[in-house]
Q: What sequence folds into this?
């Protein structure tokens, strides 16, 4: 196989789709792998909010964003590298928003309902009902998850119970259920492949994380017909080939799929046990690689499949907050405090620490470690003298406080079990759009009392998908990816005069937000 290959990564996210072409190269079999991003195109698509707390995507609009972003990214790559063309792609890697539910008709290839997005809270009452039936521990023990509207299974149950899809016997014969990766794969292969892999499957509530397969025992309370679910394949391997597309030639193999957060973990090179990353995107997602032995999740956090590669299943411990970078978008779009989020670091940098303002950005409920879907956002400590800059800083600090709560919950458990101090770790790797904000990253390092490491390639989700595809194509062993991308910036913790007071104030603000939960 060639010493240099090109891989297309399709990163299908919550607000848009990014397509990137990467080159992977090494001078000889023993040399380190050099990766370069060649092109990048992002195409946004609309968000649909039918009711308060409901979030949907039109699957046709999602697919349009995929085709446009791929077409433009390939054109950019061809303009930069004369010898490149789409036919020279060695493979394709896919990464995606994980818990978003897609339902479509395989016969007509038409969506049967808008995709119900991971942020959607419409199945809150279903989760409450299932808890009252005593099912919380059952699902926790078999899936590593908690009963929350976040996950795909209860979204599907809502569709069935509310008559939103036709589940007559004849209709069910051609119905397909899946997460976004399955929908994209079906489209890319011209309807030849209805499959997924374990990092996505483990976010559905229907996947037995111990037996590593979808379970009828888990499907039944969720009213899921198990036959409609996709086949589960290894994360790195064969998923079929492109067929019948007007923006890609036929026959390009798809050899890697990972859910977005697991892709970022892989992209960061977190192949060693206890290596950790946090992605600051729409939400903030902290994952720690936990090895090949299933780890019991600490209270308030989750166990998930990291990936299946090399004939083994690797696990991760995860904590998710639903609003991170979206908090800045909220201040921009709803309050018009600024027109571009890039100015927020400069605005926040000159704000004095007192008087203190707290922004609890639970705009779609509190995620881990609280799991309270009914809580709404809160801004506290306002006075007549409160400035826009103070509000912006409070928003950035609110993101960092949420991540610190996840980090302390996770490492408190691991330290107790393994007798190791989290301060001995090599640092927290970060990625995602919001991690470009130096004020946020420095405050995060201060709260964690831990180095925060930002790589040169911030698109580690797309990078992880591409690296997974490189491994799945046979070009490299997945273990060769342990170095990950080079580090651009390191933020060391610095003591702040008001840090103890700030932490106490944050806990009070959290409690205040919970009091007004619906």
A:
């Amino acid at each position: 196989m060639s010493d240099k290959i090109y891989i297309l990564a399709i990163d299908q996210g919550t607000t848009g789709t990014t397509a990137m072409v990467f080159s992977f190269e090494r001078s000889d079999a023993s040399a380190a792998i050099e990766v370069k991003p060649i092109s990048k195109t992002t195409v946004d698509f609309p968000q649909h909010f039918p009711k308060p707390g409901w979030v949907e995507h039109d699957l046709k609009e999602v697919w349009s964003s995929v085709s446009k972003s791929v077409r433009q990214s390939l054109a950019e790559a061809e303009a930069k590298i004369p010898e490149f063309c789409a036919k020279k792609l060695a493979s394709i890697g896919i990464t995606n928003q994980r818990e978003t539910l897609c339902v479509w008709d395989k016969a007509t290839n038409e969506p049967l309902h808008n995709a119900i997005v991971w942020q959607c809270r419409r199945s809150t009452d279903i989760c409450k009902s299932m808890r009252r039936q005593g099912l919380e521990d059952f699902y926790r023990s078999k899936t590593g998850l908690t009963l929350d509207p976040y996950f795909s299974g209860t979204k599907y149950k809502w569709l069935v119970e509310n008559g939103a899809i036709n589940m007559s016997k004849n209709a069910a014969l051609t119905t397909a259920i899946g997460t976004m990766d399955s929908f994209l794969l079906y489209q890319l292969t011209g309807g030849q492949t209805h499959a997924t892999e374990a990092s996505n499957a483990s976010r559905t509530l229907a996947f037995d994380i111990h037996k590593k397969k979808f379970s009828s025992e888990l499907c039944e309370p969720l009213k899921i017909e198990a036959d409609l679910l996709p086949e589960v394949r290894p994360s790195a391997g064969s998923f079929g080939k492109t067929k019948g597309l007007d923006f890609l030639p036929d026959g390009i193999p798809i050899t890697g799929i990972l859910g977005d957060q697991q892709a970022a973990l892989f992209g960061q090179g977190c192949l060693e046990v206890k290596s950790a990353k946090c992605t600051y995107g729409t939400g903030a997602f902290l994952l720690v690689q936990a090895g090949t032995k299933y780890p019991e999740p600490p209270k308030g956090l989750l166990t998930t499949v990291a990936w299946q590669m090399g004939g083994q299943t690797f696990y991760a411990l995860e904590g998710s907050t639903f609003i991170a970078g979206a908090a800045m978008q909220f201040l921009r779009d709803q309050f018009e405090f600024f027109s571009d989020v890039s100015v927020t670091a400069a605005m926040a940098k000159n704000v004095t620490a007192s008087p203190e303002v707290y922004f609890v950005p639970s705009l779609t409920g509190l995620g881990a470690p609280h799991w309270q879907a009914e809580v709404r956002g809160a801004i506290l400590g306002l006075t007549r003298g409160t400035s826009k800059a103070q509000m912006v800083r409070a928003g950035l600090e609110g993101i960092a406080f949420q991540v610190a709560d996840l980090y302390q919950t996770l490492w408190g458990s691991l330290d107790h079990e393994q007798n190791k101090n989290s301060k001995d770790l090599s640092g927290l790797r970060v990625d995602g759009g919001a991690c470009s904000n130096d004020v946020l990253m420095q405050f995060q390092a201060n709260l964690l009392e831990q180095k925060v490491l930002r790589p040169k390639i911030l698109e580690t989700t797309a990078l992880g998908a591409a690296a997974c595809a490189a491994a799945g194509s046979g070009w490299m062993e997945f273990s060769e990816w342990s170095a990950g991308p080079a580090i651009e910036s390191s933020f060391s913790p610095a003591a702040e005069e008001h840090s103890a007071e700030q932490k106490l104030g944050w806990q009070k603000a959290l409690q205040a937000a919970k009091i007004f939960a619906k």
